[in-house]
Specification:
The chain is 47% helix and 11% strand. By secondary structure, it is mainly alpha-helical. The chain folds into four domains: 143 residues, Rossmann fold; 150 residues, HUPs (Rossmann fold); 52 residues, Helicase, Ruva Protein, domain 3, CATH 1.10.8; 104 residues, Arc Repressor Mutant, subunit A, CATH 1.10.10. Strands 1-2-3 form a three-stranded parallel β-sheet, covered by helices on one side. Helix 1 links the parallel strand 1 and strand 2. Helix 15 runs antiparallel to helix 19. The structure holds glutamic acid. Glutamic acid binds next to strand 9.
Length: 471
């Protein structure tokens, strides 16, 4: 049997982390089994579905690199199919027209509430030989079995049983002719030959209804796996306050999709105590029975830790592709500076996110006319003039511009002046970067380039001269 899974988001908002994790699990399960993965947009709720949300879902899936083999299907484009099945069901008697008025249903509901019963349809039109004609306003209801129960063996939670007495006759087509949500899901899972439905636990209650309809249609019943919720680190439902935002916000904040995927796969699934998984490892190792039944807590620090890991362990060329986007956002022109893969190597250790990296690499590409006030006050003092002049002369004399030769120039200056490296390195750092923090001076000065470094040292010397004049 070919394994086929699907991700079926309702486009009523962003692709948030919970949805992305469900998508990842469905995708991984199909990839693990050499099967197929379908993307289906469940846009039957016309009022709440938006094109922006559809775009956000597609963008999120693409950014995460969760490719699909079929789709995207849109439920709103399949209404003819749903209605054809409903008509067949009416003919066969597995569904029936219900003419009950709103008032009748409301009165019934109130009565049941008063009696302390759960509100449910009483089957009034189920068997009545009523005198209504098809043209009169009506809904179509599914003829749910009255006896027995629905049992399914959830791949994560084990056997789950619902008594049919708990389930009333679900409306499958509204008065306006529109098929309803649960019915569309059933027909889609059937038509798309889905073998494994992996989705959020908020759909557990829909499952027995869907199974009953599938059975009435003579359709195969897929396997089900309901994934637990993601909570904030305070144990409360995940919300924006916890950083639960659309996945594209994680791109904007400087996360690598590889890091987010690794984070999401571990959020509710485990393989021993391994924390780092390449995509290939995830595909190889992923199984449904290793998914946890309990809710998982979102932890931003761990996500940051993973991001830092990926920034430093993925090939710098690959990280550079993602960094390029952030560099562009910052409006930095990189043509006349180091390659981005070198920036990744230089700044990776110091940065948890690519946004941070893009924000702290300006001095490799852009000249500046002002120094960080504190750093300049501390390190561009008159006493720094001599070491800066000396190191400038040595840097100017370098014919082969390599980090080693830059290192020797700095070291040689310190040795000749009989001072520690810091007395040369710190003024030089502030001179060439404008600030008091950067990677090692040899690699930094090397990456900034010879001409630029000399110009910036001159600028720092002018600053010191001005300061001397004012003293
Ligand atoms: N459209 C549903 C949702 O976004 C998912 C339905 C399903 O996976 O069966 O929650």
């Amino acid at each position: 049997m070919k394994i086929k899974t699907r991700f079926a988001p309702s486009p009523t908002g962003y692709l948030h982390v919970g949805g992305a994790r469900t998508a990842l699990y469905s995708w991984l399960f199909s990839r693990h089994a050499g099967g197929e993965f379908v993307l289906r947009i469940e846009d039957t709720d016309l009022e709440r579905s938006t094109q922006d949300a559809i775009d956000a879902i597609m963008d999120g899936m693409s950014w995460l690199n969760l490719g699909w083999d079929e789709g995207p299907y849109f439920q709103t484009k399949r209404f003819d199919r749903y209605n054809a099945v409903i008509d067949e069901m009416l003919e066969k008697g597995t569904a029936y027209r219900c003419y009950c008025s709103k008032e009748r249903l409301e009165a019934l509901r109130e009565q049941q509430m008063e009696n302390g019963e759960k509100p449910r349809y009483d089957g009034h039109c189920r068997d009545s030989q009523c005198s209504h004609t098809e043209g009169e306003p009506h809904v179509v209801r599914f003829r749910n079995p009255l006896e027995g129960s629905v049992i399914f063996d959830d791949n994560i939670r084990g056997p789950i049983e619902f008594s049919n007495q708990e389930l009333d006759d679900l409306i499958i087509r509204r008065t306006d002719g529109a098929p309803t949500y649960n019915f569309c899901v059933v027909i889609d899972d059937w038509d798309m030959e889905i073998t494994h439905v992996i989705r959020g636990e908020d759909h557990i209650n829909n499952t027995p209804r869907q199974i009953n309809i599938l059975k009435a249609l003579g359709a195969p019943v897929p396997e089900y796996a309901h994934v637990s919720m993601i909570l904030g680190d305070d144990g409360k439902k995940l919300s924006k306050r916890h950083g639960a935002v659309g996945v594209m916000q994680y791109r904007d904040d400087g996360y690598l999709p590889q890091a987010l995927l690794n984070y999401l796969v571990r959020l509710g699934w485990s393989h021993g105590d391994q924390e780092i998984f390449t995509i290939d490892e995830m595909k190889e190792l992923f199984t449904l029975d290793a998914i946890s039944k309990s809710a998982s807590a979102f932890n931003t620090e761990k996500l940051q830790w993973l991001n830092h890991h990926y920034i430093n362990h993925m090939p710098a060329e690959e990280v550079a592709v993602y960094l390029a986007w952030h560099i562009e956002q910052q409006g930095i022109e990189t043509r006349n500076g180091p390659e981005l893969k070198d920036i990744v190597k230089l700044l990776g250790e110091r940065c948890k996110t690519l946004k941070e990296m893009a924000q702290s690499c300006h001095y490799f590409y852009q000249d500046f006319s002002e120094f960080d006030a504190d750093a300049a006050k501390k390190h561009l003092r008159p006493v720094a003039r001599e070491p800066l002049e000396a190191v400038r002369a040595k840097l100017a004399a370098i014919t082969a511009w390599t980090p080693e030769n830059v290192h020797n120039a700095i070291q040689g200056t310190a040795d000749e002046l009989g001072v520690g490296m810091g007395k040369v390195g710190m003024p030089l750092r502030v001179a060439v970067t404008g600030a008091g923090q950067s990677p090692g001076m040899d690699v930094t000065v090397h990456a900034i380039g010879q001409t630029r470094s000399l110009q910036r040292i001159d600028q720092a010397l002018a600053y010191i001269a001005e300061r001397e004049a004012q003293a």
